[in-house]
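Supplementary Note 3. Input sequence used for the single-chain structure prediction.
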Amino acid sequence: MLAPLYVLDPPPTAGELPARFPSPFDPGPPHPLARRAADALIARLRRGEVPGEAALHAAGEGKMFGVLVVADAAGRVGWLAGFSGMLDGRWLVDGFVPPLFDVAARDAVWPAGEAALAALERARAEVEGGADAAAARAALAALTARHDRERDAMIVRHRDQRAARHAARAVLTPTDAAGRHALDQASRADTAERRRLDAAHEAEVAAPRAMVRDLDGRAAALDAERIARSRGLWDELLAGYVVTSARGQRRSLVDLFAPIAPPGGAGDCAAPKLLGHALARGLRPIALAELWWGAPPTTGGRHHGAFYPACRGKCGPILPHLLDGLDAAAAPVFGNGPIADDEPRTIYEDAWLLVVAKPCGLLSVPGRSGLLRDSVQTRLRRRLPDATGPLVVHRLDLDTSGLLIAAKDLTTHAALQRQFARRELRKRYVAWLAGSIAPALGDHGTIDLALRPDLDDRPRQLHDPVDGKAAVTTWRILARAGARTRVELTPHTGRTHQLRLHAAHARGLAAPIVGDRLYGTDAAGEPRLLLHAEAIAFVHPHTGATIELELPAPF
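The predicted structure, written as discrete structure tokens, is reproduced below.
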């Protein structure tokens, strides 16, 4: 299936073409030509010309779309359209590029495999919830309940009899051997009764317990078979993904992700589908853009009509291979950009600690990979070479400015971190939000949305009520200015990107922080994230004094 090439009219001039293919991982605005193509696709979506478009606005049903500006052999410049995964329940949709795999070959494998998995799931459900299973489990539960009642009654009776024997022994004369023997025999009788009752109970539950154990074993065997077949089906499907680079090198998806297995959905995003189709047709890629269309995902972080870079988890190994052979810009390294202030300015300092003003764009501590060494901690250690620290006590995001505490020795560092762990240290932030807060939320409130890392697109975070960690933020409106809202944000937990996702999420304030390249919409011309840690309060670990500091936001 050949996707249509939508020719740009009027054609771009030579000066409008990028000098090199922009990195798909760049979080900045798309290249003007890609934006022009995206606007044309958006017009089609708005006119209802795309199948299934209306369904994308249902809760959690939005989708990523993409456009790729290309040039053909004749020099004509146009664009291709793509979408992530399936659209309207289909892999193949007129007007869009096909997936990387052969749909006919997949259809020859997938329905039978899916049917086999469904049959195993039904068999397991029958084992777990069928009439025999229900009867066996009910019988075992009834016996267990009766046995518990009988055992409890016996325990009470034996306790009373033991107390009576204890009282009787207290009044026995030293020469009353017969009396002592009778009491000992009574005690032995209680022990024998307990053993007989346990044996009788064990005999009664043996058959239903064996049946339940057999059912559990059959269910576990069906689970194991389903997992093995699912893995085999997935491996068979993965074999259909062979990605050819601009240099002509063919590599499988498994090879690109080795030594780990490709994550689910790898290769089905809009960007690899667009680039793979263009290269297979001999079209020269010029610029790419991806945008979210429809309702935001339940996990948050995507907004209708907003542009986003390619995800690194699913596309990180694929796109560099596809672009190999093209003159393409390197993927940006977060934390490697220009820093607003050369040095963190000292706000407070004594013999044990200091508080500095962290500039936007400077890491709090060095990056884990070792590629990014420049940070507040690195610079403070150069400034104070004789101290055992300074060690940054907490962290601010790369794009966040404001007050940051550092300790000059390990003892002070440990004491301050304990205050953080016990949530005794207080922080307050100020931010401008891109949008108005819904009147129903009032002028202040609390956001309680659990968060976890997005394993497919680090460093992004997701709202996950099941596996996420608790994250709580209180907020208050400070001012309104046109389409923006200034708010005060107080985190009561310290999750990564907590304030950013709580502001942007539909169940939070539904208004991302201005300039947020991860969770927001267009940066609206702002060169930075408008989030600032303006106040901090803590107990000095050596003097016991309460230290309260404020640093007004630079915006």
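Residues 177-238 form the longest helix (62 residues). The CA atoms of residues 184 and 292 lie 82 Å apart.
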